[in-house]
Amino acid sequence: MRRVVASAPAKVNLHFGVGPLLADGYHSVSSLYQALDLREEVGIRTSQTDEWSIGVTGSITPEQIALVPTDDTNLVVKAALLAARLADFKQLRPLEFDIVKRIPVAGGMAGGSADAAAALLAAANKFNLEMSRDELERVAVELGADVPFALHGGTALGTGRGEELRRLNLATELHFVMISADAGLKTPSVYGRLDAQREQVGFDPRAIEEPQVPSELIAALEAGDVDRIATLIHNDLEPAALELMPELELTIAAAHHFGALRAFVSGSGPTIAALATDADQANELAQRLRDANFVATQAATTKRGAELLGE
Predict the structure, then answer these.
(1) Are 27 and 68 spatial neighbours (Cβ–Cβ below 8 Å)?
(2) What single DSSP character describes residue 50?
(3) Helix (H/G/I), strand (E/B), else coil: 15
(4) pLDDT tens-digit map of 252-283
(5) In terms of DSSP H, where are the helices of the chain?
(6) In terms of DSSP bridges, do strands 27-46 and 155-159 run parallel, antiparallel, or are they unpaired?
(7) Is residue 291 exposed (0-12), middle (13-18) or buried (19+ Cβ within 10 Å)?
(8) Which residues have C-beta within 8 Å of that of residue 176, sequence separation ≥ 6?
(9) What is the 3-state secondary structure (H, E, C) of 123-161?
(10) C-alpha radius of gyration, the chain, whole number
């Protein structure tokens, strides 16, 4: 019963522009994705009990682990079924999945998407699916808008619903402290709150202009100008996340107080990303936040996307 293991990275959005609400309920976006060196691992093997199963361990809290679905709503199951369909399997025996989680659940860092990307890569290998990485990225959008980037890694501009990727060059390593919240935020709820906020100030969410490409931020990334990057980070979802969880404003204030160049909501939140000047300052910032009873984890940028780890 060959077991295959793959890993995939967390992400942070250095820019997230949200365009109009579309007929299918999604939004067009302009997202500057950055992969981080916090990685999920997913192992897949054929079940020895003829039942589908998902086991979850990891470095996140037991309360967070308990939030991970262990039924067929988990994206790892959907990813394996997608790979089986692409491999033209007529009948698929039940599978066992084991997930090692290091990314906060419902935290705005695409942990579920990383699981899906790792599971898709592992299942493609297990089922001898002959598809290139680019081909896998194209089909991965069926699993969610962030899944193609979790396969891709590095630094990329995402347009459309976030799945149309253009690779960018990051000239210097960036260092973050990721500050977790006790509870999660559901992405649809954050988008819904953003639409409501727009309606409250007289804008029709369906008639919002298309989001712009963050050209200045891309130039700062390509120049490796950390101070300039800090000033240009932007997230349209941040006001909605802060309205849903006002306590996050205190987390942002604490991160700035302890020396962060910029602290902001990561994706749909509620994880707060705090940008530091370098690795040493990130280490000091993380320690000061922990001393103040925050759950803080250091992370650095990486070029690595999803990878096979072996059997």
Answers:
(1) no
(2) S
(3) strand
(4) 999 999 999 999 999 999 999 999 999 999 99
(5) 62-65, 75-86, 111-126, 133-140, 147-152, 187-200, 215-223, 226-232, 238-244, 248-257, 279-291
(6) antiparallel
(7) exposed
(8) 12, 36, 273, 274, 275, 276, 282, 298, 299, 300
(9) HHHHCCCCCCHHHHHHHHHHHCCCHHHHHHCCEEEEECC
(10) 19
Q: Are 15 and 233 in contact (CB under 8 A)?
A: yes
Look up the pTM and report it.
Answer: 0.94
First to last CA, the chain: 10
Report the candidate in 182, 74, 136, 178 with the shortest Cα–Cα distance to residue 307.
136
**Could you give the residue numbers annotated as active site?**
11, 146
Exposure on the CB side of residue 299, measured as CA atoms within 13 A = 30
Q: How many residues does the chain have?
A: 311
Residue with tokens 């109009």: 20
**What are the pLDDT digits (tens) for 36-86?**
999 999 999 999 888 999 999 999 989 889 999 999 999 999 999 999 999
Average pLDDT value over all residues in the chain: 95
CA distance 97 to 305: 20
Q: 22-52 as b/e, with b when 16 or more CB fall inside 10 Å?
A: eeeeebbbbbbbbbbbbbbbbbbbeeeeeeb
DSSP assigned state of 210: P
Burial of 136 (0-12, 13-18, 19+ CB in 10 A): buried
φ/ψ of residue 42, rounded to 5: -130, 125
Predicted confidence (pLDDT) at residue 311 exceeds the cutoff of 80:
no
Nearest alpha carbon to residue 152 among 124, 113, 181 = 113
Q: How far apart are CA 307 and CA 233, in angstroms?
A: 28
